[in-house]
Design a protein that fits this description.
Layout: E1 5-13, E2 23-29, E3 35-44, H1 49-66, H2 71-75, H3 78-106, E4 114-115, E5 117-123, E6 126-132, E7 136-141, E8 144-147, H4 154-160, H5 166-170, E9 177-178, E10 189-197, E11 201-206, H6 208-211, H7 216-225, H8 232-242, E12 249-257, E13 263-267, E14 270-272, E15 286-287
Antiparallel strand pairs: 1-12, 2-3, 3-4, 3-5, 5-6, 6-10, 7-8, 7-11, 9-15, 10-13, 10-14, 11-12
Organism: Microbulbifer elongatus
Domain PPM-type phosphatase: 7-256
InterPro entries: PP2C (IPR015655), PPM-type-like_dom_sf (IPR036457), PPM-type_phosphatase-like_dom (IPR001932)
Length: 288
């Protein structure tokens, strides 16, 4: 069997309007094992607050992923490794949420901060994606583009209820209002999905500074057109900036190379991270 090959690239850009970049991105491909990840966090909450929240989230997930490939992990069965990867991701999200909440309590100037998060990791042919808010993950292969995440947002709820079309949502006055974020309350509810990858594919993670301007058809065209594929991140940033760049823009790509030919989803349930006993915060909505 042809070995799995993984490569990553990522970039974040301040855009054309904002005075600070409140996005954070982390990406890594292990040189010795078929393991790669991308983390994108889009902060909110005023000057410096959003940048602090997104950095906490990105740093926490980066540390979780970097610590994963221990000798114990490598000695486990594939099924056990998948469970351990999922547990590391879930634990990291909970840790990031608690650290943001604690920072808000100790630093009143950051009292409004929070962040979206989308994180993806590939181990062998196993892909896992977690998200909170409206930062997205997409998979592109020979079958086309598949959106792997559904926004936790007011307009997505309106679309689901039949009150808005996806086209109307693009120009809605509440399109930037999200219903979940890190740093708002305990517990934090992340949606976690996992797949087995059976053929070569590109995985894109991005903040809404990209998807505000580029619809799914445009995203698919960019991923299908540019080679080397990892350089697509630069085209995404440039396109969003040329369209106005009103928000910070982040894009990360994992290139997964495999010789076989299908994508099979085998799980996809939302998970709720359990709060510590002393936390009883019930805030539901987060607006950007």
């Amino acid at each position: 069997m042809e070995p799995i090959r993984l490569a990553v690239n990522g970039r974040t850009d301040i855009g054309q309007v904002r005075e600070e970049n409140e996005d954070s991105i982390r990406c890594h491909s292990n040189p010795d094992h078929p393991f790669a990840y991308v983390v994108v966090a889009d902060g909110m909450g005023g000057y410096s607050g959003g940048a602090t929240a997104s950095r906490i989230a990105a740093d926490t997930l980066e540390k979780q992923f970097d610590a994963l490939l221990s000798s114990t992990y490598l000695a486990c069965s594939p099924a056990q490794q998948q469970l351990m990867l999922r547990a590391a991701l879930v634990e990291g999200i909970g840790m990031a949420n608690r650290e943001i909440l604690q920072t808000k309590q100790s630093r009143p100037q950051f009292s409004q901060m929070g962040t979206t998060l989308v994180a993806a990791a590939i181990w062998q042919d196993f892909l896992i994606v977690a998200h909170i808010g409206d930062s997205r993950a997409y998979l592109w292969n020979n079958y086309g583009l598949q959106r792997l995440t559904k926004d936790h947002s007011v307009v997505q709820e309106m679309i689901d209820a039949g009150q808005l079309t996806p086209e109307q949502a693009q120009s809605s006055q509440v399109r930037n209002h999200i219903t979940r974020a890190l740093g708002i309350s305990e517990p934090v509810e992340a949606t976690v999905n996992s797949w087995t990858l059976k053929e070569s594919a590109l995985l894109l993670l991005c903040s809404d500074g990209l998807t505000e301007y580029l619809d799914d058809h445009t995203i698919e065209r960019v991923l299908a057109t540019y080679r080397p594929a990892l350089e697509s991140v630069y085209h995404f940033i440039e396109d969003a900036n040329q369209c106005g760049g009103r928000d910070n823009i982040s894009a990360g790509i994992i290139e997964f190379c495999h010789r076989t030919d299908a994508v099979v989803e085998f799980s996809g349930d939302p998970i709720t991270l359990q709060p510590k006993a002393e936390d009883d915060i019930t805030v539901r909505k987060a607006q950007r």
